[in-house]
TrEMBL record:
Residues 372-502 form the GGDEF domain. The chain crosses the membrane at residues 12-33, 39-58, 70-92, 98-119, 131-150, 165-186, 221-242, 263-284, 296-314. Pfam families: EAL (PF00563), GGDEF (PF00990). This is Diguanylate cyclase/phosphodiesterase. Keywords: Membrane, Transmembrane, Transmembrane helix.
């Protein structure tokens, strides 16, 4: 296998870097055979090499923050100028002006220190403080050891400190530069080779100047160790400037600590070792009778500085820990509030604030299990649809709120819940039937009084179904019987109460007749499929449709789904009806998908998922129609996934198998029935449909609703689930969903459910409009 050749620019950089490295390695040996003048030439050449390398490195690699490298360039340039002056003008008086030479050279150090300090920061002001405390602690400890090991024997013990103090200028500045080099090394990682070489050059400079302090100053000329150190220092900077890693941006730690290796072990080692070595030094000086005040004062001052730096670093860490603790506490409080809000919204009706159906079911089941007895009251607002049709949904919602407030005020001890739309429930636990009857009469009387809603006097009269609790019944049986009584109250003329009794059981026969009509409807082809468009919010193009069943008996009005879906579910007829809807939807959408990429969403009832051959039935419908599996979305309710038992296991098995073939699964009415969110992570789903009750009411700002919708969208995005908002009715809701990143939406704002020909026309118009925009 042949490797591609490197680009010319990259090969040139590699050759240039290798050439400078070779020259830098050879320069330290050039001084061996040189005279003093030859040494000056070598030093001048070394400085020129560094400046040329920095200029070439900046031009070649273009670091994002080149100021630091230009500062190093300036420092080396000033040193070069000093070398030229001393080699020409002052060549004969160098030895006699050693103090002046050290002071002039010392001017270059602040500039060099500034360059090394800024090197890893890349223009970020806050970063300039990162790591300074740790490096200062290490430098202070090294300074104590340096003083005891080199300065004391060379200047203090011989008594030369007063006359040769100027020799300490450059080494002291070297210690500052050494600390900055340590900081650069601690901040860098293993890939920052350029920064490591700069750090090494700082160490080489300290060694060279220390060698001149201890040996060269006595001899009157630089020693081979000093010369080698200076040349190595320049060579390392030259190589570092040309290495590609000179452009790296050092990642800044959020907590102000430095390096993955960390300054902790190094700092602890130096802080512990320094007092031990200082004690040994003082003991040695004392035993040798050479102990002076300087021997004691310098280590004490350095130790005090080190202690102050350590205390400051502890204060920094404490401040950071405090900030992080406050941030964590705020995050936990926000999470707790969000969980509380989600739990409340999952178990309560957001419009009225009353508990929802799931709460009623749980309380009713617990009451039946413990056996205190009681009564269940189901209420339905009479003619509520007319209020919505006449005054609009906003007025209808306000009427529901007022009705719920009045109803809650009438019940002293009991659970008041909102079940659906204009349906309410009252559970009176441990209340005898006679007392419940009196409560019902009081509710009927109170609800006959008008309510003032947005300047209108409206009525919220109710029909009530009453059912006495029996120990041998389940919660579902009690609710069903109460519904039978409620339906009887409505059929009897409304605005009255009916108690469930044996006579109502006969009416169940009528439900059986409805079942028979449904059976005939299947054989007579009385069902229709309407399609409501699914809109992609990024460009508001129709990308799919939801299939919705309609029942059209010959010569009669169309029967709404809520009038027969429940009976179909209870009777099991939903299985053949659902299979027909699936086949018909796949047939109709197959052509739309080929032409426009349209997908179809089909509702699946819990009863269908209990069928052993459900999965094969879905695959057969796709195979027969030619619709690809990726174009089908199965919509299920939350209860299918969170109920316990083998039914849930079988449903999960079906959905997992179908998802393996590419079919998508969506949760319908997300968040309205159950409080647990674990199934979003653990169970086979791809999309969540945001229930219409979560959307802000039209025309009224609702920050809480906005926050919740955003939380659901963000939660779905974090779990890589798609989002579909249903019940979108206003442009404001569309704008909000687009802003929050919702993917698709459906609702009356775009289109009501329409027959197949109208749906085909809408899809074609949407595709044509998209092509025109493109």
């Amino acid at each position: 296998m042949q490797h591609e050749a490197a680009p010319p620019s990259h090969r040139a950089a590699v050759f240039l870097w290798a050439g400078v490295l070779f020259a830098a390695l050879l320069l330290p040996f050039a001084f061996i055979a040189s005279t003093l003048n030859g040494l000056a030439v070598v030093m001048l050449g070394s400085a020129l090499l560094v400046m040329a390398s920095i200029a070439a490195g900046i031009r070649l690699h273009r670091p994002p923050f080149a100021r630091a490298w230009w500062l190093i360039f300036t420092s080396v340039g000033l040193a070069l100028a000093g070398n030229l002056i001393f080699a020409t003008i002052l060549s004969g008086t160098v030895a006699r002006n050693a103090a002046a030479i050290n002071i002039i050279y010392g001017i270059t150090y602040p500039i060099l220190c500034a360059g090394v300090a800024l090197l890893p920061n890349h223009g970020r002001p806050r970063a300039a403080r990162i790591g300074l405390t740790e490096s200062a602690v290490i430098a202070a400890c090294v300074a104590v050891i340096w003083w005891m090991g080199f300065v004391d024997p060379a200047l203090v013990d011989p008594g030369l400190l007063r006359t040769h103090a100027y020799l300490l200028v450059e080494p002291f500045l070297d210690l500052v530069l050494f600390g900055l080099g340590v900081r650069l090394m601690l901040l860098s990682d293993a890939r920052s080779l350029s920064y490591w070489m700069v750090s090494a050059s700082c160490v080489a400079r300290l060694v060279a100047d220390t060698g001149y302090l201890t040996v060269g100053s006595k001899a009157g000329y630089p020693t081979p160790l000093s010369i080698a150190g200076w040349l190595i220092c320049n060579g390392l900077i030259a190589v570092a400037a040309l290495h590609p890693s000179m452009t790296r941006t050092v990642p800044l730690p959020a907590d102000g600590t430095v390096g993955r290796r960390g300054a902790g072990p190094v700092s602890v080692g130096t802080v512990v070792a320094t007092p031990v070595l200082a004690g040994a030094f003082l003991l040695h000086e004392g035993l040798a009778d050479d102990l002076s005040s300087v021997d004691v004062v310098v280590p004490m001052i350095a130790t005090a500085v080190t202690s102050a730096l350590i205390v400051e670093r502890m204060r920094q860490l404490n401040r950071f820990a405090g900030r992080r603790a406050a941030e964590l506490e705020t995050a936990l409080l926000s999470e707790a509030e969000l969980r509380k809000e989600l739990l409340f919204r999952a178990t309560h009706d957001m419009l009225t604030g009353l508990p929802g159906r799931s709460t009623l079911h749980d309380r009713l089941a617990a009451c039946l299990a413990t056996g205190p007895g009681g009564t269940l009251m189901l209420l339905d607002l009479d003619d509520f649809k007319e209020v919505n049709d006449r005054f609009g949904q906003t007025v209808g919602d306000d009427l529901l709120i007022e009705a719920a407030t009045r109803l809650r005020g009438l019940i002293d001890d009991g659970l008041v819940a909102r079940l659906h739309s204009d349906e309410f429930a009252v559970l009176l636990e441990g209340v005898a039937l006679t007392d419940a009857w009196a409560t019902t009469e009081r509710v009927l009387t109170a609800m006959r009084r008008p309510l003032t809603v947005q300047g209108h006097e409206l009525f919220a009269q109710v029909s009530i179904g009453l059912c006495d609790l029996a120990d041998d019944e389940s919660a579902a049986d009690v609710i069903r019987d109460a519904y039978l009584a409620l339906h009887a109250a409505k059929e009897a003329g409304r605005n009255q109460m009916v108690l469930f009794d044996e006579e109502l059981r006969a009416k169940r026969l009528q439900a059986a007749q409805t079942v028979e009509r449904l059976r005939d409807a299947i054989t007579r082809d009385e069902f229709l499929v309407f399609y409501q468009p699914l809109i992609r919010l990024t460009d508001e193009r129709i990308t799919g449709v939801e299939a919705l069943i309609r029942w059209q008996p010959p010569g009669e009005k169309m029967v709404p789904p809520d009038r027969f879906i429940g009976i179909s579910e209870d009777s099991g007829l939903i299985v053949p009806i659902g299979a027909w809807v699936l086949r018909e939807s796949c047939r109709a959408v197959a052509g739309w998908h080929r032409r426009h990429g349209t997908v179809v969403s089909v509702n699946v009832s819990p009863r269908q998922l209990r069928e052993p051959d459900f999965g094969m039935m879905v695959l057969d419908a796709l195979r027969t129609s030619g619709l690809p599996p990726q174009a089908l979305i199965l919509e299920i309710t939350e209860g299918v996934l969170v109920n316990s038992g083998t039914v849930t296991e079988q449903a999960i098995s079906h959905l997992s198998m179908l998802r393996g073939h590419g079919i998508k699964v969506a949760i319908d009415d997300f968040g309205t029935g159950y409080s647990s969110l674990a199934y979003l992570r653990d169970l086979p789903i791809d999309n969540v449909k945001i229930d219409r009750s979560f959307m802000p009411a039209p025309g009224a700002p609702d920050p809480a609703a906005r926050t919740l919708v955003k939380a659901i969208i963000d939660l779905a995005a974090g779990l890589r689930l798609g989002t579909i908002a249903e019940g979108v009715e206003t442009a404001e809701q569309v704008a909000l969903l687009q802003e929050l990143g919702c993917e698709r939406a459906q609702g009356f704002f775009y289109s009501r459910p329409v027959p197949e020909p109208d749906a085909a026309r809408l899809i074609l118009e949407s595709a044509d409009a998209a092509e025109q925009r493109a």
